[in-house]
């Protein structure tokens, strides 16, 4: 049997840091308000000319280095992003070109904050079916470029970054079970209204700021906790496990109150839940990717540990993945 396993992790954060105190100078908000309601203190912001593929590149190179593989060994590249360089070509194709990964099939996945988990599960399928041996999965976002910096309800939330994982085939099962889902009836709760075929760019859409993120936060909050708990429980059930077997939960870093509520319902103490939201804010698909990388770097994950990734995002979409670290 062939099984997918993670053999290398990498991350990249743009050097520019935007603090809550910086935001106090831009919009009517305060450090106390942001920290209390979100848990965020700082976030990283890409430069004006720094594209999503540009920040994905150093994360990918680090993951390949740690995996002790060359880009020429890659059979596929999957980039999870809702902030692509262009509508087409895909961000993955740009990344493939920069890496010189000549034989790698390349595509993007637009599954918002659950994108990295979606991409890992799709990569698992390619490897375990025998279609590919080595796959690079990247969650990368430049959300700052889609943020309305005059909207205090959203501009405090988002940051930029990239996380990467190299998956390869092995003999021991590592990805034990997953739970992916979607409910398009809630699409309007978190949306970039204009710029697609549904509402093409026009003077009107630009004037009305319809190319920026729009979010109904209170409604999302109520759904998010239930969705993340249900997804994690479903994935654990498929793996014939329960939450007592979890060594570390790596949740999407959207809001500290959501994370705490999910942990409480899963009966997990705080030391078993990885947090970096205070440093980076919500980076959509990059959040779980970077959190997983940092947890491993901090030696919080060891061989044999059960790690659960858990995320929800615009779509609505959600995903949970149970991994036994090998």
Describe this structure in words.
It is a single chain. The chain is α/β, with parallel strands linked by helices and 326 residues long. It is 33% helix and 25% strand.
Which series of helices and strands comes N to C?
EEHHEHEHEHEEEEHEHEHHHEE
Poorly predicted regions:
none
Q: Given the C-alpha coordinates, what overall shape results?
A: globular
Query: Strand percentage, roughly?
Result: 15-25%
SSE layout and pairings?
Blueprint: E1 3-12, E2 16-19, H1 20-24, H2 31-38, E3 42-45, H3 52-67, E4 76-80, H4 91-99, E5 105-109, H5 115-128, E6 134-142, E7 160-170, E8 175-182, E9 190-191, H6 203-207, E10 214-215, H7 217-238, E11 248-251, H8 256-265, H9 277-280, H10 285-297, E12 306-313, E13 317-324
Parallel strand pairs: 4-5, 4-6, 11-12
Antiparallel strand pairs: 1-7, 2-3, 6-7, 8-13, 9-10, 12-13
Helix pairs in contact: 3-4, 7-8
